[in-house]
User: What shape does this take?
Amino acid sequence: QVQLVESGGGLVQAGGSLRLSCAASGRSFWRNNAGWFRRAPGKERELVARINWDGTNTYYADSVKGRFTISRDNAENMVYLQMNSLKPSDTALYYCNSGGQVGGYWGQGTQVTVAS
Assistant: This one.
């Protein structure tokens, strides 16, 4: 079992930055890929960024490439999402995931609102 708790969301002006954190508990966390997803109002949930178990491989959605950076610290059981140059279109509920969309674990989400 893995439990995930996100933090770091909030209200920010366009062009600003936020750093999301995901604290994980559970012995299997370090073995799993981890990712950040988001769901904007009226839209489907989408993958924002993903990182493999040891941090050597990352993936980013085209919409966030060059602006967002995912990282992890397995010693501390943490996953981070540094978000720069935020846009109003980044407004969404952001979820941390461990182990993939199917059969993986999810946090409760943290709200990010970007004002224009």
